[in-house]
C-alpha cells in the first residue's frame, strides 16, 4: 500500500512540477529602455509648494505636463499618494 501511495505522490509531483515550469518567462527589457532619448517628445516636470491647512505645513507637489501642453485643454489627472518606507513596511 505504501508503494502505491508513493507512486501516486510521485506522479502528482511530476505533473504539478511540469505545469509550474510550463509557464512562460518574461523577456528582459531591451538595452537602453531606461535611458534618455532625444528623438522622443518629453513633457515637463515642475515642483510646486503649497500650504496644507490639514497638516499645517508647506507641502511639495510634482506636476508632470505632457509635450505640447496647453492650459486651455482638459487632461486626465493621476494623483499618487506619497509613499514612504514606513508606509511600505506596514502594508506587508
Task: Describe this structure in a few short sentences.
With 92 residues, the chain is α+β, with helices and mostly antiparallel strands. The protein contains two helices and two strands. A two-stranded antiparallel sheet has the order 1-2.
How does this model look, in words?
By secondary structure, this protein is α+β, with helices and mostly antiparallel strands. The protein has a domain at 39-69. The chain contains two helices and two strands. It has helices spanning 2-21, 85-90; strands spanning 44-52, 57-65. A two-stranded antiparallel sheet has the order 1-2. Strand 1 and strand 2 (57-65) form a beta hairpin. The chain is elongated and about 75 Å long. The mean pLDDT is 80.
Task: Draw up the topology in text.
Layout: H1 2-21, E1 44-52, E2 57-65, H2 85-90
Antiparallel strand pairs: 1-2
**How far apart are the termini?**
44 Å
Largest sheet: 2 strands, antiparallel
Question: What does the average pLDDT come to?
Answer: 80
Secondary-structure element order, as H and E?
HEEH
Low-pLDDT ranges: none
Query: DSSP strand (E) fraction?
Result: 15-25%
Inertia-based shape: elongated
Instruction: List how many beta strands DSSP finds.
Output: 2
Instruction: Please state the CA-atom Rg, rounded to the nearest Å.
Output: 26 Å
- Tally of alpha and pi helices: 2
Specify the helix fraction band. Answer: 25-40%
Strand order of the largest sheet: 1-2
Helix/strand/pairing class, anyone?
alpha+beta
